[in-house]
Amino acid sequence: LHSPVSLIFDIVYGGSITIAGELTWALKKSGNIESPLNAFFATGNIFSSSGLGLLQDKGLTILAENINRMRYMSHFRSVHRGAFFQEMRTSEPRQLLPEAWGFICPVHTPDGSPCGLLNHLTKYCEVTSTPDPKLVANIPSLLTSLGMVPLKGVSLIALNHNEHYVVLLDGQVLGHVEKREAQRLVDKLRILKIDGKRVPRTLEIVLVPMGRKCGQFPGLFLFSGPARMMRPVINLAAQKIELIGTFEQIYMDICVYPEEAYEGITTHQEVTDTSFLSSLACLIPLPDCNQSPRNMYQCQMGKQTMGTPCHTWHLQAETKLYRLQTPASPFFRPGHYDLVGLDEFAMGTNAVVAVISYTGYDMEDAMIINKASYERGFAHGCVYKSEFIELKSQKSYFGLDPEQPELQASLDSDGLPHPGTFLKQGQPYCCYYDDDEAKFHVERWKGKEAMYIDNVRLCGGLSQEPTKACIVFRIPRNPSVGDKFASRAGQKGICSYLWPEENLPFTETGLIPDIIFNPHGFPSRMTIAMMIEVMAGKSAVLHGLVHDATPFRFSEKDTAIDYFGRMLEAGGYNYYSTEKMYSGINGCELKADIFFGIVHYQRLRHMVSDKWQVRSTGPIDVLTHQPVKGRRRGGGVRFGEMERDSLLSHGSAFLLQDRLFHCSDKTVMLLCQTCGSILSPVVRARHRGGQYEQDICCKVCQENGKVEEVEMPYIFRYLVAQLASVNIKIKIDVMEQ
Ligand SMILES: [Zn+2]
């Protein structure tokens, strides 16, 4: 980053400059390396004049966001191919090629433009560190003892390349080995590699065989360096775990199950049949029963779930944290869930779900939530926000302004609020004396929502007065109409109504669903795993169990439906998990049996309270005089071309004019009827009889001009002015009405 650093290296490692003064100078100059590195880690941007030979200088770090455990975990395992590929038209960088299989998860990638570029490592994949240098130095002599002819004294050009493999370690030629000896050498080297005592365990051994018509250059390639991806597989000859790399994988035969192994060909076996999935994909219940994109959606939505990101709520000082008040452990979950201890950071709740089309409030992914369940605390949550108030000088202090006695109502005598105080917009939460300006400052709550003071902490040394206060706000966010929920099968929905319990359908045992899910959500999405979960959740509750939802646990011969169906029968329920239900409105029995059970639902962080937008009048753009966009600035919602076409097709011309003209950039302009220009009329001030009067006239036509006032969109004037700059005149004909 800084040239003086290389200067120091010159000095330390035998450079020519040895004068002490220059050494001190260099050290002084290079002392600044800390702040560029800090800035790099904070922003992910590199500032350099040379460019450092990088394809991109922005977005080189990923911020580890702790919205919930899933997101936090996956951020440490994500890999980005680079922003450069995002604009590329070819799909090749996005494909999961054979060398990436088992290292990169095929499921855990977003859809849209970063698809296949923002990837995640599989659960067992590891990235190598620098190996023991002694072991690496040992490799050449070891290879010689195993049958390699060292480079010394042998000309490679003179070799018959059809009979010999060249041996390279980290790109450096070590020697050659005879063709018939090569496989034996590789096998022996693998045994030593598994052992790890004489050869690093992270050594990659690639024998690119001869005799292929087109392909990679034959040879024995060895890699020992750091920052390579490796994953464990079972070496069938040694019956032990071996780490393999991306390059060697494509020349290996790896089976998934032992019965698939071919005698004499298959050398390795996968550790488990789910080892090609990332940690997050392994948390989806029965992903093998879902249509593939649904699993991708769940990987995205799992990371947006409200949950339990931390346990130190009273100590944390994050800018924003989401919390679910009553999280529950799912009844139907893969073994990986317990392996990563996700119950410690629980998210989501178990909901009683009826799959029924009831009223019109469950159309198109909308879902009805039982109002009584909501009142009992279903999916309640809150958002924590922290704010820091820093005193600028030593003589400043936190305290109440004696001239504002009304502050005492909400603030303590030290100028800070009581924990638990309820505050609305504009109410004060902190008061301090600023010595620089010699006056008191009052901080007021700017958010539109009401909130509680969760806790107040003072920061500073023990010997001096505190100079910094951290105030944590708690904003209640209980479910409301418009909030987003999703099951773990990529089935998202918006709450459309908090329906009174007495009007919802009920079963013969008197059970009333928490959530009503529309059956039309199933045929097109094909999320069979969610249907299985309905049955599994119900049978788990009946028998007091937690069911295993590890992928590939069931097969065509031994189906999940049969397993859970028989379990439901044993509990006295219908084999297919359907139940007789009665209308909540008139008490009549519903003709169809209703699919009824328990599903684990996630509450997503997208809430209407953060998104609602409304505007009558407000700020406009300086250039176009049209309303600005953006919720924060009080802007409008865009009424675009598609919306325009929609209104045109309905024939609602007045509404269209209202949206695009009256509520947008309507202006009164002056137009000269004689020359038809809107640019030439001007307003002048004229002195007449001791008073100034407005005089409107056309600059071009002078006395002949007949200037009228016309309503027009302001953007039209802008267009006319632009065209005038390239010598195109717009002439407007107007008629008296
Ligand atoms: Zn004119």
UniProtKB/TrEMBL annotation:
<feature type="domain" description="RNA polymerase Rpb2">
    <location>
        <begin position="63"/>
        <end position="127"/>
    </location>
</feature>
<dbReference type="GO" id="GO:0005634">
    <property type="term" value="C:nucleus"/>
</dbReference>
<dbReference type="Pfam" id="PF06883">
    <property type="entry name" value="RNA_pol_Rpa2_4"/>
</dbReference>
<dbReference type="InterPro" id="IPR014724">
    <property type="entry name" value="RNA_pol_RPB2_OB-fold"/>
</dbReference>
<feature type="domain" description="RNA polymerase Rpb2">
    <location>
        <begin position="635"/>
        <end position="733"/>
    </location>
</feature>
<comment type="function">
    <text>DNA-dependent RNA polymerase catalyzes the transcription of DNA into RNA using the four ribonucleoside triphosphates as substrates.</text>
</comment>
<dbReference type="Pfam" id="PF00562">
    <property type="entry name" value="RNA_pol_Rpb2_6"/>
</dbReference>
<dbReference type="InterPro" id="IPR007121">
    <property type="entry name" value="RNA_pol_bsu_CS"/>
</dbReference>
<dbReference type="GO" id="GO:0003899">
    <property type="term" value="F:DNA-directed RNA polymerase activity"/>
</dbReference>
<dbReference type="GO" id="GO:0008270">
    <property type="term" value="F:zinc ion binding"/>
</dbReference>
<protein>
    <recommendedName>
        <fullName>DNA-directed RNA polymerase subunit beta</fullName>
        <ecNumber>2.7.7.6</ecNumber>
    </recommendedName>
</protein>
<dbReference type="Pfam" id="PF04560">
    <property type="entry name" value="RNA_pol_Rpb2_7"/>
</dbReference>
<dbReference type="GO" id="GO:0000428">
    <property type="term" value="C:DNA-directed RNA polymerase complex"/>
</dbReference>
<dbReference type="GO" id="GO:0006351">
    <property type="term" value="P:DNA-templated transcription"/>
</dbReference>
<dbReference type="Pfam" id="PF04565">
    <property type="entry name" value="RNA_pol_Rpb2_3"/>
</dbReference>
<comment type="similarity">
    <text>Belongs to the RNA polymerase beta chain family.</text>
</comment>
<dbReference type="InterPro" id="IPR015712">
    <property type="entry name" value="DNA-dir_RNA_pol_su2"/>
</dbReference>
<keyword id="KW-0240">DNA-directed RNA polymerase</keyword>
<dbReference type="InterPro" id="IPR007120">
    <property type="entry name" value="DNA-dir_RNAP_su2_dom"/>
</dbReference>
<keyword id="KW-0479">Metal-binding</keyword>
<dbReference type="InterPro" id="IPR007641">
    <property type="entry name" value="RNA_pol_Rpb2_7"/>
</dbReference>
<keyword id="KW-0804">Transcription</keyword>
<keyword id="KW-0862">Zinc</keyword>
<dbReference type="InterPro" id="IPR007645">
    <property type="entry name" value="RNA_pol_Rpb2_3"/>
</dbReference>
<keyword id="KW-0863">Zinc-finger</keyword>
<feature type="domain" description="DNA-directed RNA polymerase subunit 2 hybrid-binding">
    <location>
        <begin position="281"/>
        <end position="633"/>
    </location>
</feature>
<dbReference type="GO" id="GO:0032549">
    <property type="term" value="F:ribonucleoside binding"/>
</dbReference>
<keyword id="KW-0548">Nucleotidyltransferase</keyword>
<dbReference type="GO" id="GO:0003677">
    <property type="term" value="F:DNA binding"/>
</dbReference>
<keyword id="KW-0808">Transferase</keyword>
<dbReference type="InterPro" id="IPR037033">
    <property type="entry name" value="DNA-dir_RNAP_su2_hyb_sf"/>
</dbReference>
<dbReference type="InterPro" id="IPR009674">
    <property type="entry name" value="Rpa2_dom_4"/>
</dbReference>
<keyword id="KW-0539">Nucleus</keyword>
<feature type="domain" description="DNA-directed RNA polymerase I subunit RPA2">
    <location>
        <begin position="174"/>
        <end position="231"/>
    </location>
</feature>
